[in-house]
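New to this. Help decode the following:
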Amino acid sequence: MFSQVWKKYLPVITILIKRSSGEDQKLSMNHTDFERAAGGRKIKYTFSSLQLNKGRINNMVKHTPLAKEFAVVLQEEDLTRKLIKEQCLEFSMNGNFELSIKNNTPPVEPLEENDAAAITANTGDEDPASGDVS
């Protein structure tokens, strides 16, 4: 029902997903797009805490059809599928038709050289040429 609407906004959403690593992003959308897609039915146009962890939807929470279709559209498009497979994202949409994108991907911490040196130095080997004879 809402797939065409989500596909209309997908290029902008893709850019906002890329930018979300720096800060939370918001997209204001046109309410008439969603109302037309609903065909006059009374539908809840909001959702919260739609979490995509490495491209997979969080099934612990029951999501609205609007949120489920949004997740499917993100997973079907090649570029967005590659983006969401590498990240942990949270989406929500409020009553003003504002889509919020929050990136919850933990930062990657590189292994420091001091840690690697400490691991190899603590092997506990004694020097057999020390000259101690029993």
About this structure: The beta strands are 25-28, 47-53, 56-57, 88-93, 98-103.
